[in-house]
Specification:
Blueprint lengths: L11 H6 L5 H18 L6 E5 L7 H7 L4 E6 L2 H10 L6 E5 L12 E7 L7 H13 L1 E12 L3 H12 L13 H8 L3 E9 L6 E8 L2
Parallel strand pairs: 1-2, 1-4, 2-3, 4-5
Antiparallel strand pairs: 5-7, 6-7
Length: about 210
């Protein structure tokens, strides 16, 4: 029998119930980079949307250090959204919504900043391009998208290889991307203002800041 080459899907319910063991070691660095970029792009009193942010591990620091007027989250995982909703039940700035980045509906509002962390790499190339485009569908003209994604540096390959060999890898559908693929996805949508590799994450990620063209 011919075996399917399609990778197993990441079990996001298990992830939100019990986050990956390295998450607490790396999210502080990612949060500091996000805060820097959000401040740079007028995040104070701005409207912010996080795609794929169910039970966001960044929202606490962003609300405290950036102070946006609005922070919305769209994700397809009900458990993660319920956990986030319970954390911010009395905070009028925070709103959560169930939605799929690959089939996002026409937005009710446009945002000053749209960001995602570790989202667009969980699709095939066509899906990744659609996920990237969704960020710009929700952005006002001149707004900023901040998108991170793993990239296959020697360090990423070594650490992931070890995790897979010891059955400790849980992101089965993660597809690390090189910058040129991302550049093709944003062509005609936005202008890349900065791009950096976050080496301290060990499972290295690009963090790219893009200004919407129109």
């Amino acid at each position: 029998m011919e075996r399917s080459l399609k990778p197993a899907q990441t079990d996001w319910d298990s992830y939100y119930a019990r986050p990956y063991r390295t998450a607490s070691l790396t999210r502080r660095h990612t949060a500091s980079i996000l805060v820097e970029l959000l401040r740079k792009n007028g995040g104070a009193q701005a409207s912010i949307l996080e795609f794929g942010g169910a039970n966001s591990c960044f929202i606490d620091q962003i609300l405290a250090e950036v102070a946006p007027a609005r922070y919305d989250v769209i994700d397809s995982n009900r458990l993660g959204l319920d956990l986030l909703r319970s954390r911010y039940a009395s905070d009028g700035r925070v709103s959560v919504g169930l939605g799929d980045v690959l089939s996002a509906s026409k937005p009710d509002r446009l945002y000053d900043i749209v960001f995602s962390v570790g989202l667009i790499e969980h699709f095939d190339p066509a899906g990744t391009a659609r996920a990237v485009a969704a960020h710009f569908d929700y952005l006002r003209p001149g707004g900023t998208a901040i998108i991170t994604f793993p990239t296959p540096t020697w360090l990423y390959r070594a650490v992931r290889g070890l995790a897979e060999a010891t059955n400790n890898w849980i992101f089965h559908d993660e597809r690390p991307l090189r910058l040129p693929e991302f550049e093709r996805a944003v062509a005609g949508l936005g202008e890349i203002r900065s791009a950096r590799i976050l080496w301290p994450l060990i499972l290295t990620q690009y963090c790219v800041e893009v200004r919407k063209l129109r």
